[in-house]
Design brief:
By secondary structure, this protein is an alpha/beta fold. The chain contains 12 helices and 15 strands.
């Protein structure tokens, strides 16, 4: 914990959603408790009472609630109530759950997307600001040390002026109509009532948008999107290709698919500037390739002394020991927890993690992509 904050105990966390059958709940639990700075003590893990009780028993929770509304109200009253809540529900519940806890004066960590519309997202952003509450958004990939190193190298001018960015996220888990089998994750992600107006782009394309803007510091100015549904009977997109124009004149291509045979979690980004390039692949997360102009490519490995201060500050293990998804998730939690202690200590927040503002930005990107696709892949300003 940084010197300007006084931390005298682990923070108490609650969780809504993430019970039996949801892998992301276990991920949150491992990540938030990894550094010993917080512990999940309360939850409303499922809307199904039996599953909720069984999940709470498995987690040895001190307090289990039948509904998030009751949880928010009761925890706000307790002297030993939770310091923050984790929202790990399907998308359509993010807004009402987040609003309930913000209204109760409780800090929020929410899975993306922050809500289902820009208006809802803006409401949460405004509410968090008005109440001076911490709001973290789990764009997990920004927590990788190699991604932070890439950001520092772009921001310090080592690649020169960014000219082109290629970012992709390829999966194959929805190649077949899993939703028709009752598979929980597929069922809600392909249901417009629970996922919103987009499937693939909302689920993984927004990670591409966030990663691109996080590393480059640029903003997408306009886009041209082509959505596709390849699985017969599916209601939401399972594949998309999007052309991008950035606010500095750079161009980009964003492609995402959940029907790309043979791909498991293929998130990759390539950045090309006037003085060099960068390349990172999430499935080889400890390696960042730097391509300085006129020189051999450099294979940079997390954990070595030549990495910048940002990457060093979030690296937990010596070089050669792989750090992955859980550690990246935990890095976000470490930053969010520090800000909660800053809030308690009356110190200005650092906000060095994705916030509600990033959630608004992501939904603005998504709304424009949907608009462009519906217009037959016309260019739309963001």
């Amino acid at each position: 914990m940084s010197s300007e904050v006084k931390a005298d105990r682990p923070l108490r966390a609650g969780i809504v959603g993430g019970g039996q059958g949801a892998f992301i709940g276990r991920v949150h639990r491992m990540a938030v408790e990894l550094d010993g700075a917080a512990r999940i003590v309360a939850g409303a893990l499922s809307s199904d009472p039996a599953r909720n009780r069984a999940s709470a028993a498995e987690w040895f929770l001190d307090r289990a609630y039948d509904s998030y509304a009751t949880m928010a109200m009761e925890e706000a009253k307790r002297p030993d109530g939770i310091d923050f809540v984790i929202i790990a529900t399907p998308n359509h519940l993010h807004f009402p759950v987040a609003k309930a806890f913000l209204d109760a004066g409780i800090h929020v960590v929410c899975d993306k997307p922050i809500a289902l519309s820009v208006d809802e997202a803006t409401t949460l952003k405004t509410l968090a600001e008005q109440r001076s509450l911490v709001f973290g958004l789990t764009h997990t990939y920004t927590g990788y040390p190699a991604v932070i190193e890439a950001r520092e190298r772009v921001r310090s001018g080592q690649v020169g002026e960014v000219r082109k960015v290629l970012v992709e996220y390829l999966q194959d888990w929805l190649m077949d109509p899993l939703e028709s089998t009752g598979q929980k994750q597929a069922s809600w992600r392909t249901d417009p009532k629970k996922s919103g107006e987009s499937g693939c782009v909302a689920d993984i394309g927004t990670h591409c948008e966030n990663l691109l803007e996080f590393i480059t510091g640029l903003e997408i100015k306009s886009l041209c999107a082509d959505f596709r549904i390849f699985v017969e009977g599916r209601l939401l997109d399972d594949d998309a290709n999007i052309l991008l124009r950035m606010n500095n004149g750079a161009t980009g291509v964003l492609t995402c698919s959940q029907v790309a045979c043979g791909e498991s979690n293929g998130l990759s980004i390539r950045i090309y500037g006037s003085e060099g390039g960068l390349e990172w692949h999430q499935q080889d997360p400890n390696i960042l390739v730097f391509k300085p102009k006129g020189q051999p490519h450099q294979r940079l490995e997390v954990g070595n002394g030549y990495m910048g201060s940002g990457a060093k500050g979030v690296t937990r293990l010596p070089s050669g020991h792989p750090e992955g998804y859980i550690e990246a998730f935990a890095t976000l939690y470490r930053s969010i927890i520090r800000d909660i202690w800053r809030h308690r200590s009356g110190v200005p927040l650092a906000r060095d993690y994705p916030t509600a503002a990033d959630g608004v930005r992501g939904l603005a990107f998504l709304a424009c992509a949907i608009d462009s696709a519906r217009r037959g892949a016309q260019w739309v300003d963001l």
